[in-house]
Backbone:
């Protein structure tokens, strides 16, 4: 997989934080879990239930050697969230995310969570119809 970064941009690879000082492109030659800086959510941005789940999953991805506490937090949060949701597409999406986490497919769970943001936003703005789910 080829990755290009701009000067000063960071990438998180298997728990390591790498910052480049100039524009660079590189190729990952083996399986690695990575997160681009543009997809990293800051704690102050985790303002909704789904964004909080995203943040928890992000922690698991960024710190793969110490996920026990984050995993426990995830299961508590996802269970609580599913328990209060009425929207079936959101509930179904959260069940899928839970299965992905249980299968240790952390990156896929992160993408699936991000794909549900428009539905959550629509519900929180008072729109009763869910927008279609789009790929992350």
Residues:
């Amino acid at each position: 997989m080829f990755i290009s970064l701009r000067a000063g941009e960071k990438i998180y690879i298997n728990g390591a934080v790498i910052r480049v000082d100039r524009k660079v492109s590189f190729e990952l030659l083996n399986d690695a879990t990575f997160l681009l800086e543009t997809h990293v959510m800051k704690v102050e941005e985790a303002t909704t239930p789904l964004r909080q789940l995203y943040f928890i999953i992000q922690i698991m991805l960024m710190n793969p050697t110490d996920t026990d506490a984050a995993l426990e937090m995830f299961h508590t949060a996802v269970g609580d969230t599913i328990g209060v949701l009425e929207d079936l597409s959101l509930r179904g999406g959260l069940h899928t995310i839970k299965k992905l986490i249980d299968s240790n497919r952390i990156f896929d769970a992160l993408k699936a969570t991000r794909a549900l943001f428009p539905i959550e936003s629509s519900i929180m703005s008072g729109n009763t119809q869910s927008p279609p789910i789009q790929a992350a």
